[in-house]
């Protein structure tokens, strides 16, 4: 459950919603495992109030997994990236052992099928902007390229990547973000929730209504403060689209 909380009235409303949720569970003779229910607040300085379920205080956490993506209270994704790079390296090791004598094409298909999804799932949401995290992901693909091409000696990874027709992961993520933004702008029926979120961001940042219908072919740049918002999906992708 998610809610914007700006004042004490919002806090009371959020607690009331939790009470409704527990009441619904009791009515249907179900129960929540409250030890697994946690509160995460995406905010800077405001202290987080205490919330309860069945009069039991919920624990606070600074990260949680939602639909396969690890969210952090500081709006960074370094925990998610570290976890996914670890999983991808494990897949590379498995492919190396299972397909040691297989041809290059078989190892390439295995990499794209078993390893690459770990590095790209929901990347529009968590695409990193710091050099450290970008390089962290590219190093995994470099390791995979050495395994696929059985590189030895001084042969470079860049040359092998071009022969395998693999793009840099950062370029693939950028194309994915741009494609999604253009779909949001042009196809309201296909992405109603994302379209509503896009309109909300535009209205809040510009202080006036400037919807998709007014900027269908040329989204306007968004003025932002703070690295997290500046490098989030909508502002960052609009800048990339205008390059």
Explain the overall architecture:
With 243 residues, the protein is mostly helical. The chain contains 10 helices and 6 strands. The protein has helices at 8-27, 78-98, 104-120, 123-126, 131-149, 157-163, 169-186, 192-206, 227-230, 233-242, and strands at residues 38-39, 52-53, 56-57, 59-60, 63-66, 69-72. The chain has a two-stranded parallel ribbon with strand order 1-4. A hairpin with a 2-residue loop joins strand 5 (63-66) and strand 6 (69-72). The longest helix is centred in the middle third of the chain and has 21 residues, at 78-98. The two termini are 38 Å apart.
**Radius of gyration over alpha carbons?**
22 Å
Q: Can you tell me the overall shape?
A: globular
**Separation of the first and last Cα atoms:** 38 Å
List segments where confidence is low: pLDDT < 50 over at least 5 consecutive residues: none
* H and E string: HEEEEEEHHHHHHHHH
